[in-house]
Write a structure and sequence with these properties.
The protein has six helices and 23 strands. With about 350 residues, the protein is an alpha+beta fold. The chain has a single domain, classed as Penicillin V Acylase, Chain A, CATH 3.60.60.10. It has an eight-stranded antiparallel beta sheet, with helices on one face. Strands 1-2-20-21-22 form a five-stranded antiparallel beta sheet. Strands 4-5 form a two-stranded antiparallel ribbon. The protein is globular, with a radius of gyration of 21 Å.
Length: about 350
């Protein structure tokens, strides 16, 4: 599971937040990929270097997984942010052969490719139309990484990049929300089933002289799904982010994003999955929120909080050497500290 959304600033820029849930430990850390970093494209044969190799134009900060230079979330120096979210039931990548195979990258390289090469959503659209994304196997993952990608630029535009039935599908995303299966076009249509919901309280009704009032506040969103299914989380992220934008627009967006993200933490033990479940990653047990992140695109600051520590860490991208000769990894930490009131 994963849930993502954006909050728009008054100047059109945005703050992007997401959670990352999985069954197996993804071993997340922060990683800075500098300008001119060399990326070996993985071809259909799953061999690094056999696909489309490239040299990154922009520096990128993000969350890497499994000790590899593979990012599942991040932001570049131009304020473009993106995230890979699980899509195991729907993702079906292209099958390039011959020279097309040499012009392809692995599914798990989509985010690295987008953030290291492009500054805007329109550039991402044009760039991905020129390459192929294949179904190569990631050994550390024990299979094909089936995911889709949410992308947001500093002008406030958002898209979702998916590969469905072997074809590239890019969907404009005016609401900035994305979760998991089903694919994005279905999720957008499903919003129409809940147009009756509103943050505004419902008035009492009167029938034959008898008045019936809601039992408490919160009646406007009565009927909003509260479970952890992807469509339910999508609807909640949409309702919460839209309401915050309309009715709490003066609050600082980074702090407001964290407050909304708190609503999507999966308490340990609440979602028990068997090892064969595509959202389990080959292990059994409880799925949980392993890491949450917030990207402040205007100020180029990236925030992260992981399961082992409730403390929020702050990474100021422009205060680091963006022309370093190698990637740099930063541990997120595993200690929670408390401010003592004297």
């Amino acid at each position: 599971m994963c849930t993502s959304f954006t909050l728009k600033e008054k100047d059109g820029s945005y703050v992007y937040g997401r959670t990352t849930e999985f069954g197996r430990d993804l071993q997340e850390a922060l990683m800075l990929l500098p300008r001119n970093f060399s990326y070996p494209g993985v071809g259909p044969d799953s061999v690094p270097g056999s696909g489309l190799n490239w040299v990154g134009k922009y520096a990128v900060i993000g969350i890497n997984v499994l000790g590899l230079d593979i990012l599942l979330d991040g932001m570049n120096e131009k304020g473009l942010s993106a995230g890979l979210l699980n899509l195991p039931n729907s993702a079906d990548y292209q099958k390039p052969v011959g020279t097309d195979g040499k012009n392809s990258i692995a599914s798990y390289q989509m985010l690295n490719y987008a953030l290291s090469n492009f500054a805007t959503v329109e550039e991402v659209k044009a760039g991905f139309a020129k390459i192929f994304v294949n179904s190569s196997i990631l050994k550390a993952w024990n299979g094909v990484v089936k995911c889709h990608m949410t992308v947001h630029d500093i002008q406030g535009k958002s898209i979702v990049v998916e590969y469905l039935k072997g074809e590239l599908v890019i969907t404009d995303n005016p609401i900035g929300v994305m979760t998991n299966d089903p694919p994005m076009p279905w999720q957008l249509i499903n919003i129409g089933n809940y147009v009756n919901l509103s943050p505004l309280e419902k008035d009492p009704i009167t029938v034959d002289g008898e008045t019936f009032a809601p039992p408490s506040s919160g009646s406007g969103l009565h009927g909003l799904p509260g479970d952890f299914l992807s469509p339910s989380r999508f609807l909640r992220a949409f309702e919460y982010s839209a309401a915050a934008t309309q009715y709490a627009s003066d609050l600082p967006k980074v702090e407001l994003t964290w407050r909304i993200l708190n609503m999507f933490d999966i308490p340990p033990g609440s979602v028990m999955i068997p090892p064969g479940d595509p959202y389990a990653g080959g292990v059994s047990g409880w799925e949980y929120t392993q890491v949450s992140s917030v990207a402040d695109a205007k100020n180029l600051i990236y925030y992260v909080r992981n399961f082992k520590s409730l403390n929020i860490k702050k990474f100021d991208l422009m205060s680091h050497d963006l022309d370093a000769k190698a990637a740099t990894s930063f541990p997120i930490g595993d200690i929670t500290t408390y401010q003592v009131i004297q």
